[in-house]
Q: What sequence folds into this?
DNA sequence: ATGGAAGGCGCG
DNA sequence: AAAGCGCGCCTTCCAT
């Protein structure tokens, strides 16, 4: 059963209609005011458990969450279209040529709108200003038409089951992302401020450096004999360093570390603290933390490979330095789970390299550290060497230690290395490559093909360099993208199981609504659940079970598991 | 004046 | 030890 959700043609109200799986109407079209929508949606959810179909979850779900309405399933036409347009699995269908683009996200809902009087979850399509509504949101007919087109593209594709799984997981991701934004990460502003005060000094007046930062800048000016130096200016800095006899090619910290000069230590300290101040300082707190929660927006499918991105506050780049401020509420704890060596394991599964898979198991068939296993098989037990070699193979390293170690890996695991080599060669030829479930690389532009034909020597060098660069991209794409699919399936399974935890029913979200375990963060191969202490055992088991379920969904029965490390901590900084 | 590139560094 | 993938965010610097 589907429930189609759209706007009326004059965009002042919503329309809802139930449809059977074959697309025939199962209810009359119901017109609903904005105020009444959450109650209507809740009633339909409880009565029919439909799959909600909308142009994009970000247009509808935040308002529903604000009214405490949570949904089990959806089909996000925008995210699905984004996949189907490029998927090699659907290349021979009419869909890619005929699809109507989904209306874009209303600009006023997006970035630069810090949490304030007008949070994005309070706004909606209903009161989007005229300027933003130039591209009309879809009405019911458009939604129905696009759903039909997508279903037919899937069924006439080369791998309907895989695409169905991918689109279902991606849509579930859209629900998770909105819920995590709504929920936020518990954030102790007082602890964060104490940290800032200890490291930087008191909060400075507008446009001033904190006193400890200014003191470091002064020390640096003295050591470099450059009284007016602005240490934030790479140009001024490199000139001052050269004058002081420090012959660095750039001002990157790792390069400066090599020099022995009294200016280096204060400079490196300045860099570290300056970043804390500008990126995660008082401004960050003011902009992104409200009522003890850090609310950042997740962008599902925001990366070409299918990984998520984030918008506002950098939820996926929270530095270790400030993780001490993320503390679970009283009566709750964080359960932090990360998939161990996810990308290498994905490579072993994709390439069906049984030797590499065996390196991830012990004699009893239990999962063990894959890098350690590979190290034991061919790197004299040196785990870090094995890790550098494996990552080099996935990223396409050619020089340095990593580049030197790859050939040894190729002798040990020819199938796995062939798999990424083939992806790289295809990319160099300008071809498209795909993940296991069928997300494909965007096509190369016409200019790329033109540049490959160029004749003059310098142009040809550039063309070859561009081809190698694309080869590294496609080599990594198949692994990173399939890892993202695994993670998305893991998330979806996790969410489904958390919602089913008793007491409560799926339609009300059970505990998911009434203070139960909540997903509060997701970082590519890691999730954070904010969990009532009495449910730690159950939720930990669910994290493991969901991993196995995701593996089965993606790859079927394979002699390789995707183990997750689970740590139960009060404070995010203590994980692992 | 302002938008975008580049340098730098945080995360996976 | 510092090459090879994917991002977001902040500041400076340069072109339009």
A:
């Amino acid at each position: 059963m589907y429930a189609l959700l759209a706007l009326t043609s004059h965009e002042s109200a919503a329309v809802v209609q139930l449809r059977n799986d074959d697309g025939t109407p199962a209810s009359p079209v119901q017109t609903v005011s904005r105020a009444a929508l959450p109650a209507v949606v809740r009633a339909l959810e409880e009565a029919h458990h439909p799959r909600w179909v909308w142009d994009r979850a970000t247009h509808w779900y935040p308002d529903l969450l604000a009214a405490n309405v949570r949904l089990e399933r959806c089909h996000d036409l925008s995210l699905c279209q984004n996949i189907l347009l490029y998927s090699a699995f659907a290349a021979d269908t009419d869909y890619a040529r005929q699809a109507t683009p989904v209306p874009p996200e209303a600009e006023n809902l997006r970035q630069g709108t810090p949490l304030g009087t007008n949070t994005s979850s309070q706004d909606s399509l209903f009161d989007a200003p005229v300027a933003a509504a130039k591209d009309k949101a879809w009405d019911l007919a458009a939604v129905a038409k696009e759903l039909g087109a997508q279903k037919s593209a899937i069924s006439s594709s080369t791998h309907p089951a895989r695409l169905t799984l991918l689109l279902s997981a991606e849509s579930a991701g859209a629900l998770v992302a909105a819920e995590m934004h709504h929920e936020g990460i518990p954030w102790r502003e007082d602890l964060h401020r104490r940290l800032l005060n200890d490291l930087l000094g008191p909060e400075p007046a507008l446009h001033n450096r904190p006193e400890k930062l200014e003191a470091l800048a002064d020390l640096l000016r003295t050591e470099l004999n450059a009284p007016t130096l602005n240490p934030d200016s790479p140009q001024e800095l490199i000139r001052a360093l050269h004058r002081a006899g420090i012959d660095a090619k750039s001002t990157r910290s790792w390069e400066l570390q090599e020099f022995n000069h009294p200016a280096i230590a204060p400079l490196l300290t300045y860099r570290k603290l300056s970043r804390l101040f500008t990126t995660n300082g008082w401004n960050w707190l003011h902009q992104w933390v409200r009522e003890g929660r850090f609310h950042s927006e997740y962008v599902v499918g925001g990366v070409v490979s299918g990984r998520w991105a984030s918008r506002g506050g950098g939820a996926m780049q929270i530095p270790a330095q400030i993780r001490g401020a993320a503390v679970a509420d009283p009566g709750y704890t964080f359960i932090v789970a990360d998939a161990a060596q996810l990308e290498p394991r994905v490579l072993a599964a994709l390439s069906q390299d049984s030797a590499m898979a065996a390196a991830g198991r012990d004699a009893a068939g239990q999962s063990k550290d894959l890098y350690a296993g590979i190290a034991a098989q061919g790197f004299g037990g040196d785990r870090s060497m094995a890790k550098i070699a494996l990552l080099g193979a996935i990223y396409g390293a050619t020089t340095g230690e990593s580049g030197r170690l790859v050939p040894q890996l190729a002798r040990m695991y020819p199938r796995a290395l062939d798999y990424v080599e083939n992806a790289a060669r295809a990319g160099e030829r300008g071809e498209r490559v795909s993940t296991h479930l069928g997300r494909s690389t965007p096509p190369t532009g016409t200019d790329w093909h033109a540049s490959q034909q160029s004749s003059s020597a310098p142009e040809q060098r550039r063309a070859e360099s561009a081809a190698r660069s694309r080869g590294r991209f496609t080599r990594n794409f198949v692994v990173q993208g399939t890892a993202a699919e695994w993670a998305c399936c893991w998330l979806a399974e996790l969410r489904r199981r958390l919602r089913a935890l008793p007491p409560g029913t799926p339609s009300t979200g059970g505990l998911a609504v009434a203070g139960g375990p909540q997903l509060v963060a997701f970082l590519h191969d890691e999730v954070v659940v904010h969990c009532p202490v009495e449910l730690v055992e159950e939720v930990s088991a669910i994290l493991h079970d969901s991993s196995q379920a995701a593996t089965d969904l993606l790859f079927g029965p394979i002699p390789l598991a995707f183990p997750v490390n689970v740590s139960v901590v009060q404070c995010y900084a203590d994980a692992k």
The longest helix of chain A spans residues 457-500. The two ends of chain A are 43 Å apart (CA to CA). Residues 234-235, 250-253, 271-272, 275, 279-280, 307, 314, 316-321, 338, 342-343, 480, 523-526 of chain A lie near DNA strand B (CB under 10 Å from a C1').
